[in-house]
Specification:
Layout lengths: L1 H8 L5 H7 L2 H10 L6 H19 L2 H11 L8 H19 L2 H10 L5 H14 L5 E3 L3 E5 L11 E10 L5 E11 L5 E10 L11 H4 L7 E8 L10 E11 L5
Antiparallel strand pairs: 1-3, 2-3, 3-6, 4-5, 4-7
Helix pairs in contact: 3-4, 4-5, 5-6, 6-7, 7-8
Length: about 250
Amino acid sequence: MLFLLTALLACGPSFKDIQAQDTIEGYEAFIAASPSSPSAFTAKLRLEELYLERAETEGTLEAYDAYMAKYADDSEAKLMDKAKEGREAFAYQSAIDANTAAGWQAYMDEYPKGQKKYKQEARRRLAVLEYVDNIEIGPAEIEGANMAEDPDGPLDGFMIRADMKNTGDKDIRSLNIAIEYLDAEGKVIETDKWPWVAPQAPGNIPIEEEWKVPVKSGEARLYTYMDTAPNAPGWAKKVRLVPISITFVKEEK
């Protein structure tokens, strides 16, 4: 009996070894070889976690789908709800990154009962994309600025300026702009939002009355935004201005 036990132990790594390696392949091999082992339940729990962690790390729909395909019919799966939320969040972020009508519509079609905040943003993006070709945005100029607007004060912030024009046939009541801060490779490292025109500023921050006046068809107006530098490192003093929501005067009730 002692010889048999010794032989069995020598056939493969112990569960402690499997845990130390902590890999999908290791847990799957252990479960396949020892499905009745007291450690099989623990192995299955950790294996599910690793599949979801891989999806989150890789950040691809394929990785999320691999998790779901494996655990779709598993009544003991513990992380399916979290995986579904993560997949939807990734699909939503993909739509933001692409920012095309096709991309947003694909998200809406795939998640007709998705998160309310995501669906609202998708509808706003689709609405502005229908008109965005009628909004001319010139190159963004960035220069140092004093946040207290003191001409003699230190340059503790920056000012963005860009010429914009409404070339369409509608008067714009509000147009919100995403300010995407870019690194040297043109990747977005952080995003802010500030309107070109709006009845009121975000958070009811006081703004000049001229900002509240609708931009008429054919009218050009300067876009300005002042803030401190983004928190994320790597900003190359470059920005991209992206229209993200719009309303028109004739739509007001």
